[in-house]
Design goal:
Blueprint lengths: L3 E5 L9 H5 L4 E3 L5 E3 L3 E2 L5 E5 L4 H10 L5 E5 L8
Length: 84
């Protein structure tokens, strides 16, 4: 059951690779030097998103907290409430 939305502001990613180091299950580095959400959907605004379950929340929260430029966000799917 998907309960959360993982979002990545890819245009503003600096490619530090902290997300991929903390959570390689969901994050990978691209050849252009920026990170990508594995299996994420590319939006027209350049952002990426992926629906995730509660079991994947903690590891993605850690990736978001490790990001020095705050380009990783988590929201509740049901009401859009921003968690980070």
């Amino acid at each position: 059951m998907t309960e959360f939305i993982l979002e990545h502001d890819r245009p503003n990613c600096i490619g530090c690779a902290a997300c991929a180091a903390v959570n390689p299950k969901h994050w990978e580095m691209n050849e252009d030097g920026r990170s990508d959400i594995k299996g994420g959907k590319q939006r027209e605004d350049g952002w990426q998103e992926l629906e995730i379950s509660e079991e994947n929340l903690k590891m993605n929260k850690e990736a978001a907290e490790a990001c020095p430029v705050n380009v990783i966000h988590l929201k509740k799917k049901e009401n859009g409430e921003k968690l980070i």
